[in-house]
Amino acid sequence: MPELPPALSGFWVTFRTQFQKVNTEQYPEQKDKFPPKPRFHGRHQLNRWADGLEKCVGCELCAWACPADAIYVQGADNTEQQRFSPGERYGRVYQINYLRCIFCGLCIEACPTRALTMTHEYELADNEREKLIYEKQDLLAPLGPDMVPPPHAMVEGMDAKDYYDGEVTGPTDEQREEARQLQRNPGAAL
Ligand code: SF4
Ligand code: SF4
Hints:
about 190 residues, 5 strands, elongated, binds iron/sulfur cluster
C-alpha cells in the first residue's frame, strides 16, 4: 500500500480512533463505579480501642519516620482524672500537613500501636492552604455506637498490655457511668 502523506496519516489516526472503545471515567459523577484499590493510601485515621480510648500514645515515631516532615505530634501525660489512652501518654496535639504528605505510608508502618492507619479517602483538594493541615479532631476515628468518649478510666482490672492483646471488647457500665457524670459536670475531669 502506498504511504499516505504525513497530514493525511494524522487524519487517519483521528478517524480510526472514533470507533474505538471510550475509556473516559466520569468523575465525580460516577465515582462510586471506580472504588480505590484495597491497598490504596488515602487520608490518615487515628484509631480507637473498643471502649473509645485512643490508640495513639504520643510517641512521635510516626513523625520521625516521615520523610516529608508532614507530621507534628505533641504528647502529654494521662492522669487518673483525665485519661485519653491506655498508656502513660496520649497524643495531645496531632497534625498532618497534606501539602507535604506524599502518601508513602512509612508513618503507619512505624506506629507501634496501629493507632495510625490510612483510609480510602482521596478527595483532599482545597482552595485554602490552611485547611490542608489536618488537626487531631479531623483525623480521629468516629466513636462507634457502643464507645464512650474519652477522657475516662481504663476497663477495671485491665492494663495497657491487655488493651494491646485485644482483651478489651467494649466499654463497661462503670465507664458509661463515668461519662454520664462528666456530661453532667464537665469540670470534674479538669
Ligand atoms: S504517608 Fe509518608 S509523607 Fe505522608 S505523613 Fe506518612 S510518612 Fe509522611
Ligand atoms: S500515631 Fe502511632 S507512632 Fe504516631 S505518635 Fe501516635 S502512637 Fe506514636
